[in-house]
Task: structure prediction
Amino acid sequence: MSTPIVIVGCTAAGKSDLAEALALRLGGTIMAVDSMQVYRGLDIGTAKPDAATRARIPHLMLDVADPWERYSAARFAAEAGPLLKTAEGTNPQDTKAPRMILVAGTILYLRALLEGLFEGPSANPDVRRRLEEEAGRVGVPRLHTRLAAVDAVAAGRIHPNDLRRIVRALEVYELTGQRISDLQTQWSREHPAIEGRFIGVQRDKEGLNRRINARVKAMMAAGLLEEVRRLRDDPREGGGLSQGAAAAVGYRQRLGHLDGKCSLEEAVEQIKIQTRHLAKLQRTWLKRFRNVDWLNAGEEQSGADLLEQALKLVDAP
Result:
């Protein structure tokens, strides 16, 4: 059985660069485990690999949904799971067999894929509609405050403006009387459904912040604002951005600017702030993963050095 390689780390740490280098060396296939790269058209703001990279390296789970669709961890696990299990069936004696390399951009999706989803209640359209309408009247942060009163752990993990996850947490509490953070402990299994060789890329806080700022600047130069405007104004029937896609860091702030709620400079600064907040949340989530071999990517560390370190881990028993 060919064990998949799972690359984890905070946003902007360099996961994709390492995964691409590994794929080229090993003849591997990359699976993007990312809640926003699944959407067609969300390219610049999600740091999706460009066409040249995708021509050199096979990629899975990119562009599998239209931006106006609802997408979920459950759907991702259902669609990506069979692809991953097919790769696991590769003959382990074939040293030239391709390896599956997972790039974990969204920890929730990774856990759903590797460990399965917790047993929570099905979505209730009436409850969701009522909560979403209330958010429209009083503001999303007010719902976040309510969530903190019944499930402080979940509220601490969810950003105050993340309407979709706030509504889901409150929905679970209303339907079951149980906190979603308690239900999610069902993920804490010693033996996940799919094993993987976990390699982490970590950077010090200052270095990561510099990379985040540089990434945001590069995205702006590449035309992120125009990308958001095009997605928002898509004339096709049903076009536009779903609630989930519109909540993505970079897109939410640009939409706010296009709607006249803030200046372009304020939107850019908010993207940097929210990306740093996302990195902080990811660090917390990643502490829950066992058996991660961490690589320290310092300022002086070259990509070639990281690749050689990762290859030694891949070949280790």
Summary: The chain has two domains: 5-116+193-315, 125-185. The longest strand covers residues 197-202.
